[in-house]
Design a protein that fits this description.
Length: about 70
């Protein structure tokens, strides 16, 4: 994952609703990263670390609250 991708997310998308339009814009903004994992509050996720994956964490209202690599 590119550090710039994380920074881009933090600057532009944290606090935004993760609806279809926002998700599309976010995916375009983080190119060349193609492995994006959307994680909701009740989602079960693996603990494997994938260096080129961007994890987007959502709250219970489907609002983006975090972006991390791995």
């Amino acid at each position: 994952c590119l550090v710039g991708s994380e920074m881009c997310i933090r600057d532009r998308y944290i606090g935004q609703d993760a609806g279809a339009q926002t998700r599309g814009q976010l995916l375009s903004a983080v190119v060349p990263v193609t492995d994006v994992r959307w994680i909701g509050p009740d989602d079960i996720v693996t603990e494997d670390n994938v260096a080129d994956r961007l994890n987007i964490t959502l709250d219970e209202d489907d609002v983006i609250i975090a972006a991390t690599c791995g």
